[in-house]
Amino acid sequence: MGEAIKELEPNVDKLAQTLSHIENINMMDNYTLNVTKNALTCQLTISLIHLDLCAATRQYLSGLTNYDQRFAIKNLQAILNEAYKRVFGFSSTKLKDTLIYPLISSLSDEDKDKYRSYLDKMASIKSNFHEPTIFNKESRCMIYHYSNDILKAHKFLSDIDADVVIHASNQFLSVIVQLSEFVHNLLLDFDKRMMLLLESLRNTIED
């Protein structure tokens, strides 16, 4: 986990810098810029989620007391809940508020066809992915709030199953990796288009 964090953290900083530069370009009605911005937003969010999952798991593994470990697992479950909600959304989440919708909806029909295998895979994952520890609404409430029923809150924390939560985290990480692969390939493609766009802008300015 420590090595993964060391590798991811510098990349996150670079992604943030690049996204900041893109947002400062005054041509946001441009197709290439829009898709690039949405893809960078996706990749940065995915990378931060990956970092958070790794850090919480590492905190659990290095916990010195039983409560250290329970607290870390509670945090890990909270990250999973919020991460899934942000990426795919629960049934009550508005589609436009999910991470992947702006990116997919900004693609042209031609690019959707080009990346059809990835898009179909994402749709299949959303339809078939189900980890009870992520979708349990009562657990989500217990994680985020100090319940009026303090004995119930204590029992929840005492009964939290680290193996179940870590399994859910590993399953969701595999989803994140697949989504990241799609966004990475999309960014490679659009990086070439961005170079052509910037070259065209330079030529226009020089003329």
List the helices and strands and how they pair.
Elements: H1 2-23, H2 31-61, H3 66-87, H4 100-106, H5 109-114, H6 116-128, H7 132-135, H8 137-144, H9 150-159, H10 162-206
Helix pairs in contact: 1-2, 2-3, 2-4, 2-10, 3-10, 6-10
Could you characterize the architecture of this molecule?
- The chain has 207 residues and is mostly helical.
- It is 81% helix and 0% strand.
- It is built from ten helices and no strands.
- α2 runs antiparallel to α3, α3 packs across α10 and α6 packs antiparallel against α10.
- The model has no long low-confidence stretch (mean pLDDT 85).
In short:
81% of the residues lie in helices and 0% in strands.
Provide the β-strand percentage band.
under 5%
User: What is the radius of gyration computed over CA atoms, rounded to a whole number of angstroms?
Assistant: 20 Å
Low-pLDDT residue intervals, each spanning 5 or more residues? none
Q: In one word, what is the shape?
A: elongated
Structural class per helix/strand content?
mainly alpha
Q: What fraction, in percent, of the residue positions are helical? A: over 70%
User: Strand-and-helix sequence, N→C?
Assistant: HHHHHHHHHH
**Average residue-wise pLDDT:** 85
Number of strand segments: 0
Instruction: Give the helix tally.
Output: 10
The biggest sheet amounts to: none
* N/C terminus separation: 52 Å
Observed structural traits:
207 residues; mainly alpha
